[in-house]
Amino acid sequence: MLPALILLPVLAILLALGTWQAERLVWKTALLAEIAAIEAAPPRPLAADPPLFTKVSVTGRFDHGREAMLELEVRGAVLGARLLTPLIPAHGPPILVDRGWVPMARAGGIARPEGETSIEAYVRLAESRGWSAPVDDLAARRFYTFAPATIGAALGLPAVAPFGLVALGPPGSPDPARSLPRPRNSHLGYAITWYGLAAALIAVFAAFAWRRLKEQA
Questions:
Q1: What is the spatial distance between Cα 153 and Cα 92, in angstroms, rounded to a whole number?
Q2: Is residue 64 very low, low, confident or very high in pLDDT (cuts 50, 70, 90)?
Q3: Distance (Å, rounded) from C-alpha 59 to C-alpha 135?
Q4: Domain boundaries in the chain?
Q5: Is residue 83 within 8 Å of residue 169, measured between CB atoms?
């Protein structure tokens, strides 16, 4: 009797976890399909409050004198970062644009278009600094958390858009993003794990019960 009383709540928990992951799998699969459709579609004009996973087109003038470096990323044996440059549109506040990866040394060859420029990009929302994130070096214009208000103030901009843009394009210098970001979809494996544990628990209990019945016969 006691093993059965222990089995039932544990089994219910395992099945609930498996079902939750199966539901998350359906939701995540639909989200990835939506992102793929957005990526394949033409970019939209930039709105004042764009949602995440939006591909947009915007025209403005880059303020290369206020460039900054964002995050750190090693490619091969080269340490680099994202080149962050304010874009000044015809209307509205400046927008911080992640133009792509560059070596930290920034040794020549970086394209810096002058005059009015049109770019395709996806929206990047503001972030809050995590407890383990490095502290921004405001004087050196090196940032590790994408917080537009903080970065804009450090660059001497009175106001910036509360979001940023990540440029899309072919390889170059800077080396921009090629596609929209996609969240990981590991829910199928998790669902199989939880349901598998539930099935194993049932099998163990069945073997235990069968042995007890044989002993009592």
A1: 17
A2: very high
A3: 32
A4: 2-31+185-216, 54-167
A5: no
